[in-house]
Amino acid sequence: MTTAARLPAGIAHPFSPAGRVDPYPAYTWLRTHDPVHRDPMTGMWLVTGYADCVALLKDPAFSAAAGQRERARDDDLPVSMLTSDGADHARLRAPGARLLGPAAMASIAGGLARDADALLERAGERGVLTDAVEQLGTPLATAVLARLFGLREEQRAPFQELARAVAVNLDPLAPPPLARLGRAAMGELTRYLDAHVDQALPSPLRDFAADGRLSRQEMLGVLGLSVVGGWQPLAESIGNALYWLLPRPEAREALRTAGGEAGAGEATADEAAAGEAAETAMDELLRLEAPIPFTARVTVRDADLPGGRIPAGSRVLAVLAAANRDPAVFTDPDRLVWDRSPNPHLAFGGGPHFCLAARLVRQSGAVLLTRLVRRFPAAALSDPEPRWAATLIPRRLTSLGVELHGAGSESHEPAEAARA
Ligand code: HEM
């Protein structure tokens, strides 16, 4: 197929309002017919094949610095690891492990489990959640960052409002007035973090700040990036996960009983097995509905991918959400296979910029989902057809009603066709 290929009439462009709500028909067509596609509407290259995306994310011909600069805002932030390449990037990334790596997760795990229990306790008192993203995902994401950053209890609510205000910076198609507010909020967040660093409770942030390898501004860059790039995708990933999980009794039951029949919040010898099974499920849920559906690069020279050549100076999107459903790699790619293993999905990207918090995201999602299905084995969607928002990043539902008690969920199963 030549690079002049066009989406057939009747398949919505993935950036059009209809395509943003349901981009999968376009992704499937592109991946099948033109996996390295020059998009006539935007002039960008859309790379949708799995092998092509993997190659692109590893190839230094595709610059993240140049790719993300397109989105850079006058936000007082220094260059961050996401907007740098090569040695610069490695220097900025290495200390970030102290903030977001496995040891950081291990140190907050106990507190986070208590946060998840408290959240579910409150949710259970309500019985019906009008929006599980707002009532479970959002406070979970805030709890994760609060624990990492050593925030005090009373700092959580104002921090959450700041995180919400900067989240708009993720969406490349945010309307200009909103984008302006997002830029202003970014400056406010940076000042907030600057003032906070020296008063943080013992936490991964304290270790990170003591590391000494980054300047103050660079350190604030990593913290700011974690809030903008992490808070909303994590919150929304909980809604996306429940959307797929709750209507499927077999998946819910497998998650509930993995590692034995422990009660909610109960620590057992099988906790590790349960955690592993839940992380496997979380991976599959992220594969199916990647909260960050694509990421941008610019070619600094001509680049060859398995599916074709891209000339120097091109704007390129690695469409992770399309690669994640490539039948060449994933059997039954449009279905939830809750125990899929191996699961080399690209929801966390790949190559040198692979999400530094991937393990943390998997584990914190797993903590909440396991506890939820154990505490509420019959949890169900209360709205048979939740709607997807017309935003590009993150991929998210407009709202997600959930019933936490009552018998069975089969009667609420959303149309299978909507997800296949
Ligand atoms: C479901 C939630 C999340 C998803 C789907 C996700 C996904 C991603 C993806 C796709 C990238 C690569 C971007 C690129 O290559 O251009 C990335 C990078 C990154 N993510 Fe995440 N992320 C999530 C949550 C988080 C959280 C909670 C944090 C921090 C608290 C975080 C911190 C980072 C950082 C620091 C990078 C940059 C890594 C680098 O440039 O070397 N992410 N993430």
Task: Quickly list its features.
420 residues, alpha+beta, Cytochrome p450, 5-stranded mixed beta sheet, 3-stranded antiparallel beta sheet, 16 helices, 10 strands, globular, binds protoporphyrin IX containing FE
Task: Tell me what you see in this structure.
- The C terminus is likely disordered.
- 49% of the residues lie in helices and 7% in strands.
- The chain has one domain: Cytochrome P450 (Cytochrome p450).
- It is of the alpha+beta class and 420 residues long.
- A five-stranded mixed β-sheet has the order 1-2-8-5-3, sandwiched between helices. A three-stranded antiparallel β-sheet has the order 4-10-9, covered by helices on one side.
- A hairpin with a 6-residue loop joins β1 and β2.
- The protein contains 16 helices and ten strands.
- α7 packs antiparallel against α8.
- Protoporphyrin IX containing FE (HEM) binds next to α6 and α12.
Using the CA coordinates, give the radius of gyration: 21 Å
- The stretches of 5 or more residues where confidence is low (pLDDT under 50) are 262-266, 406-420
The quaternary structure here is single chain
Output the CATH topology: Cytochrome p450
Ligand list: protoporphyrin IX containing FE
**Percent range for β-strand residues:** 5-15%
CATH class descriptor: Mainly Alpha
Tell me the overall shape: globular
**CATH architecture label name:** Orthogonal Bundle
Mean pLDDT equals 91
Give the tally of β-strands: 10
Element-level helix/strand string: HHEEHEHHHHEHHHHHHHEEEEHHEE
* Helicity level: 40-55%
Q: In this structure, how is the largest beta sheet organized?
A: 5 strands, mixed
Whole-number count of domains: 1
Count every helix, treating DSSP H or I runs of 4 or more residues as helices: 16
How would you name the CATH homologous superfamily? Cytochrome P450
Strand order of the largest sheet: 1-2-8-5-3
Alpha-carbon distance between the termini? Answer: 26 Å
Structural class by helix and strand composition: alpha+beta
